[in-house]
Amino acid sequence: MAEDPALRRAALGTQVAQLFRDEVSSGRWPVGGQIPTESELVAWSGAGRNTVREAIGSLVEAGILRREQGRGTFVLTTSDVRASLGRRVAATSRRDSLELRLALDAAAARIAAVRRTDDDARRLEALLAARREAWADGGPADRARADTALHRAVVAATGNVLLAEVYEGLLTVFEVVLDDDVQGATDDLAELHDQLVAAVADRDPDRAATAMAALLQPMIDDLGPA
């Protein structure tokens, strides 16, 4: 029986999509970066233009890549797990998103206080200083980035690869949820961030978890009764 051309094309498309996935997962196509143009991918992969287009489309559908009109295609995440988590949380309420973040961040703070290395402690101090500067002189985007960088570093200090992957998959959604909180805000949380970093440095998991919870719980309380 002759091979069905449609099946052959589908198999080739899957192979090319996997080739592109490998570029993302290896970091050769970094998160936030623009991937090569369609013509460049055709020349590089040896596949036809339609096959390349379909392979890119499958990664866009999976949430790994994002097309931007007039600009090109960019890497959103390195993992299907991250992409699917991000889509799921994006479909939930602000309260659900904040409660999930509180649970993850507080657990991460507790674990980080136990496992952090000296390098982790130094990085947290440096990011805390960068956060102070961003809130003193930067705009809302600078403040949001500085806050995210500090919280991401706390998660990294846990040494838990799966926790870090889940957290990264949710960060984009968390940043959108918290975007309003840095618009025209004053830095009322500076002292709590100081306490958080100090507790992790002192290897005090209870203090670290308490400080992290104190940072996020008021945002949930502001929503009123569930």
UniProtKB/TrEMBL annotation:
One of its GO terms (molecular function) is DNA binding. SMART domains: FCD, HTH_GNTR. Residues 10-78 form the HTH gntR-type domain. Pfam families: FCD (PF07729), GntR (PF00392). Keywords: DNA-binding, Transcription, Transcription regulation. Transmembrane segments: none annotated. InterPro entries: GntR_C (IPR011711), TF_FadR/GntR_C (IPR008920), Tscrpt_reg_HTH_GntR (IPR000524), WH-like_DNA-bd_sf (IPR036388), WH_DNA-bd_sf (IPR036390). CDD domains: WHTH_GntR. Coiled coil: none annotated. This is FadR family transcriptional regulator.
